[in-house]
Amino acid sequence: MNNSNGAGPVPVFEVCGVTYRYRDVTALDHLDLTVNAGRRAVLLGANGSGKSTLLRILNGLAFADEGTVRFCGKLLTEDAFENDGFGMEFRRRVGLVFQNPDVQLFSPTVFDEVAFGPLQLRLRVDEVRRRVSETLEMMEITHLKDRSPHHLSMGEKKRVALASVLVLDPEILLLDEPTSALDPKSASRMIDFLVRARGGAKTIVTTTHDLDIVEDVADDCFVFHEGRIVAEGPPAQILGDTALLKSTGLLHSHLHVHKSGEVHAHSHLHRHEH
Amino acid sequence: MHIPDGYLSPATCAALYGGAAPFWYAALRKSRKLLFTRMVPMISVFAAFSFVIMMFNIPIPGGTTAHAVGVGIASIVLGPWASILALSTALFIQAFFFGDGGVTTLGANCFNMAIVGSLVAWLVYRAVAGRSAITSSRRVVAASLAGYLAINGAALCAAIELGLQPHFFKNASGAPLYAPYPLSIAVPAIMIGHLTFVGLAELVITGGVVSYLQRANPALLRFTAPGVPMPQSKAQPAAMESAWRAARPLWTAVGLLLVLAPLGLLAAGKAWGEWSARDFQDPAARQQIARASGNVAPPAAVPTGLARLSSIWTAPFPDYSPPFVHAPAFGYILSAMFGIGVIILVAVAAGWLAARARPAPRTSARTEET
Amino acid sequence: MPRDTRKGGRGFLERTTAGFVDAMEHAFYAEQPARADGLLQHMDARVKLVGILALIVSAAAAQRLSVIAALFVVTVALAALSRVPFSLLLKRVWIAVLLFTGVIAFPAPFVTPGEVVFQLPGFGWKVTAQGLVSAGYLVLRVETAATLCVLLVLTTPWNHVLKALRVLRVPAVLVTVLGMTYRYLFLLLQNAHDMFESRRSRMVGELNGRERRKLAAASAGVLLSKTFDLSSDVYLAMQSRGYRGEVPLLDDFRARSLDWAMLAGFAAVSVAALWWGR
Asked: Which one, B104, B293, C126, C265, has least CB within 10 Å?
């Protein structure tokens, strides 16, 4: 992996030979992956290729059947999370935005939702209010603050879900399909927010099967297929490899999403949002 | 069966809140112990599920539909304690938000449906299913019975609570202050609807869901079948045989109950038959009374059991006073029987739980995490 | 309620779907007047909750019809001051209650023993004074309590009702559970609704009884599986944001002088009702 930091790459996540089985399916199959600090990595793969599972493992929500996962050099195991100090620290530094915002929006109102994380981390009440207001402002959802999540549109839900994680100002952001189920306009708006939210030198891991957004959200690209990483490299290189994308179902899945019936592989590669 | 405000006296309401409180407390403690931090989302989402299930129109044999409560499913999938919490939560939201069932009577409704319902369902299911394999058809039978008996237990409690009102709460001139119908009317009127329609709906949905889960998602049935392996293969006949034998006394008891319950009502037919014949003569009134009895409209035709009974009656329509003379006794005996039954059930449940300090359900965590 | 579905095998699907839509509509209506400008809308949710519960209990405890009727008048006045449209109350409460409880109370005058007031010609059915009074008690009480309960919901955002429960010493964990149940209720309702709708559109020909029962059970089973997955995912999402079993809540209630005055008012009415209604 090429990294131009003077001090050399600092790994945030080191995944080593991880295997994870879900019921009878092997979701991850002896997978290796390193994500370095300050980099934006994208995990490209068709639906069901194990990307979401990997994000959950990186977030300490699921644990590998075989292999090891290190976070800043520390092994992520169930025992590690038994230690409240580590758990709190980890939750503060690493945020995961789920693919389905409905599972992430469980509070009665948008304000309560965004306040959930800070309250869990035992911030002072006035600090919680301040942060929530700022985050709502930043995500342009202040007008929604008293609404119930079930009255929101998909785009609004996704923004609230992102806000509920950004409010903790995590150093490492894990995004599971941030633009799935969004219409193109909402999707590009989402990308704007993501680009803006990056702010400081954040590490971001995004999963997607949407080739359109890759160049906007990634420095490093990993291609997933059947629980393994089959290719990695800079976005331009990966997106140029039509044979690879076809063999991993990415071009197909892309067309499937848009149902336009036309093949736009090249135009996607050169699309720019702003 | 959702009793609205105004049907029960404040004293009855307070007593039933008091009766429900220790169960709620125990349920909260047990659920925390069994589910750990998982409890909050688990109870919440299942409460929402119970709410939705209560809105299902269940087709029952005979071409009609009825609403079920879903207490059987909740108890079988979650175990009785979490089921008590989930159903109570659903009932709370129905009462406060949707105006279905009262606020003062919430304790009563929770006691009947959430507590008595869950405990009866779970005990019957455990007793009848024994240690049979997760996918054995015996579990479908057990679930059906559990649903049927649970809903009827709950209905009987509601009937007794309503029926006791005019015996105890009258104004100076003797006019009943709350639900006006005595046990002799309330119990049969409610139980007819539940022994037939609502009971069948609950039977169909509980048995049907368990049968569906056996094929589609047997892991969900594991929680209330501890120690039973998850057999994709056939269960060993020998083990099945011994399990069957071990559960035989319980089977017999359940069978006896099943036989005796309708017999008891038939025997009591004389007492309340007079009322029925009188009011069932007018189709409108009949409909109304049976509705009063628990949110359930009676069938389009006179229930066959009643029709048969009415042919036995000799005295057509006597004066209004006599029917109540023997009737309360019947009601009291029934309520006493039921009270004893509940106490026994609770004792058995407590003993079972004490004997079996179950390990935390870590085992299931794996399969749930995609 | 049992109804005949022999004509169309999909009757139960249709009725269930209609029920789902009705519940969602109810929630929609409930959220409209909560934003309107009126007396109850201005009150602190805790005061409102305690006050309205006190009135409901008084209505349940009063032993004089006149006192219950007076409480009903107070309730209607509260509704008027809170600009809750009477048409809404009429449709969703008053008529609904009459249809249900009125019908239940209907036979009471005939079967309650007591002084005979008159006899229905032809049938020889006797109507007793006690029976009439008893039916009056039931209907008035239920109307009053149901109206009060609906007023609370119509004038208070649901999440405020929930947080206000904290003053009744309901544990924070249960308040959280209630909030989450309400939230996921709509997700599951929508889910079930879509499932039934798609079932209905794909269904050709008639189903026999057995098939219909199987379909109902399978629908419930599918929903149950979804419920389970949902609860697991929600749990992970909570964990991901630092949840370890405790749920601190933000309370943003401020009781002002109006609230104290109203609390005193509720207390006075309740005490009076309990005193006169003995």
From this structure: C265
